[in-house]
Amino acid sequence: MAEQRSRGGPAWFWGALCAILLILISTRGQLAPSNEALHQVFAAQPPPPGLDLQALLPNFDLSQLPPSLQTPARDLLANLGTGQPGVPVEATVTTPRLRVTVRELRPILGNLLVNGEVTNVSQYDVVVPLSVFVLQDSTGLSYRIGNDTGIPLRPGERIPLDLSIPLPPGRGLLLTTNFPPDAPVTQRLIVIETP
Q1: How far apart are CA 119 and CA 135, in angstroms?
Q2: Which residue, 77, 55, 48, 82, is CA-closest to 65?
Q3: Confidence class for position 9, pLDDT limits 50, 70, 90
Q4: Which sign does the torsion angle of CA 62, 67, 71, 72 carry?
Q5: Among 45, 39, 168, 73, CA closest to 111
Q6: Cβ count near 170 (within 10 Å)
């Protein structure tokens, strides 16, 4: 009887192996939990017909930036043009309740990945839906998400922000965070050289 047990291995070993396999299957191979709430692909939304876009568009012109930001903005354009990641022109904005930091812009398979984090800087719990983030390119095209799922954040807590948008090459990009009752804040991620 003891000989048969030693050939098959101890029962606890097989139980542990089965548990590990079940965990891997349930987490789709990821050992650390991932929160997909602020990781989404944004879709292009054309502007409403009859709208004068030139009057409403913010300034995307690189020459209008302060001199200290012009060289990093050119470096970003060069990196993105060669398929390399780069640092956005304006990396961080803050509202009374949120700090939005974009650390990296990375072109991948025809999309631009916007990678950063959102931090609750208030003293209260907040729920941040994806709909508070609106991206707009230099032609007036907006990129939005239809999903309004929110993620709760306790004071001081932060969560990764990973957005993917189908931004054509050569366009400027803004990220507006509109989280009422806080006033909307906009950060220029990519500016372009206009002829």
Answers
A1: 19
A2: 77
A3: low
A4: negative
A5: 168
A6: 14
Helices (H) and strands (E) in the chain, counts: 4, 12
Q: Is 142 helix (H, G, I), strand (E, B) or coil?
A: strand
- Confirm if 97 and 127 have CB atoms less than 8 A apart: no
Helix (H) / strand (E) containing 70 = helix 67-81
Which DSSP helix (H) or strand (E) runs through 193? none
Prediction pTM value: 0.70
Angle at 134 between CA 128 and CA 135, to 5 degrees: 135
Element (H, E) at 80: helix 67-81
Give the C-alpha separation, 15 to 33, whole Å: 22
Read off the pLDDT of residues 84-141 as tens digits, 9 standing for 90 and up: 999 999 999 999 999 999 999 999 888 999 999 999 999 999 999 888 888 888 888 8
Tokens (6 digits) for 85: 């990641």
pLDDT above 70: residue 15: no
List, in order, residues 6 or more apart from 58 with CB less than 8 Å away.
136, 174, 186, 188
CB 47 within 8 A of CB 53: yes
What residues does 86 pair with on adjacent strands? 105
